[in-house]
Specification:
By secondary structure, the protein is α+β, with helices and mostly antiparallel strands. The protein is 29% helix and 30% strand. The strands form two sheets. It has a four-stranded antiparallel β-sheet with strand order 2-3-1-6, with helices on one face. A hairpin with a 2-residue loop joins strand 4 and strand 5.
């Protein structure tokens, strides 16, 4: 059974938005989602994002075709995304939970 595959896209132009990111990947298959990661404080792009392709074959085609190519004036990196669990573990330990009281 084919399943969606998430890709990491790095070295993005800070001017690139979600729609433009999606457009870059569409020639290689179904783009389930495309998200440029934004900085919460500044509202600016952090220079990377994630694209979810319809299946593993489409994801591999996108990696093979796009990794190291130019998009919006920058040479982008495209590879398989790491599991999201890694980020949650790091965040919990580095802040020790002390910031949780500031949420309203």
């Amino acid at each position: 059974m084919a399943s969606n595959k998430k890709l990491y896209v790095g070295n993005l132009s800070h001017d690139l938005d979600n729609n433009e990111l999606k457009t870059i990947f569409q020639p290689y298959g179904e783009v389930v989602s495309a998200q440029v990661i934004m900085d919460r404080d500044t509202g600016r792009s952090k220079g990377f994002g994630f694209v979810e392709m319809g299946n593993v074959e489409q994801a591999q085609a996108a990696i093979d075709a796009l990794n190291g190519t130019e998009a919006a004036g920058r040479s982008i990196t495209v590879n398989e995304a790491r599991p999201q669990a890694d980020r949650g573990d790091r965040g919990g330990r580095s802040f020790g939970g002390g910031g949780g009281g500031r949420r309203f």
